[in-house]
Amino acid sequence: MKRKRRQELFAFYDDTALKSHLEKMAKNGWMIEKMSNYFWTYVKTEPRDITFEITYHHAASEFDPHRSDDQETFDEFCEHTGWKLALSWHQMQIYYNEKTSPTPIQTDPNIRLEAMHKAMWSNYLISNIIILLISIPISVMFIAGMIRVPEEVIKSGTGLFVGILVTLLAVYTIFDLTVYFRWRKKALILAENGEFCPSPNTSIVQRCVIYFTYLILAVWLLNKFIKFDMLMMLSIFSYYASFAVAAIAVNKAKDMFKHLNVERDMNKFLSFIVALIVSFITVRFFIYIILLVTGNREMIELLF
User: Which of 33, 52, 181, 285 lies in the 20 to 30 Å Cα band around 158?
Assistant: First the structure.
């Protein structure tokens, strides 16, 4: 069966744009099969005009071995009106219906907003607050350094690169949280009259941020390549490769433990252990490669 993977950029709360996107993909013969933080997987099907609906269940988790009783009861309720579960991702539940103009699952905008907000706290808002607590002090120091001694920051190279990226992360996080809470305020007002408020689409801004990040990274790597800083280039590659290997290992471990019906908390613990072990092994491996390439035999004997 033919499949394809794409990097999709939708805010967790943007159910309006997400539904439209999935319906467009289905019309072109691509049905959503799996979603992750990095890539979404689509399976090739016959082009179909189907309707998608997105609900939120704040108590759900990607580490759950099976759906809860509440979720299964809700699934059964949806099936009576033709809605089938396509997949669940974190607290997001995605249903589809092949009928023409089906009755919506959600008819009360207040219930929709409350469920979404609880899911946002479970999966999104707390992590973004933590990001701000970490990134804002670094951004302030970076901007202060650029004002006081710009030549020193620019000469540092790495400091300039990290400062720009962390500041960009802080600015985007503030932007996204502001957009969400402003939309929620407007949506609550409309909900009093029984009206739904379409969620704001920030995918264009997300793409600009991602592409700008790629550009900054490319410029930085090009600068290191021109200077032929072998140690720095190997260190950069090692960092990202270690992160990628650990992320893949944790995702595979999580799915394996779910298949074995390991309960949520134990799955989280075991997946965390897998992350530590894989990270330790990959970091040691890349350190060995770096020391080998740079000819530091004494350090190899000391560490290994």
Answer: 285
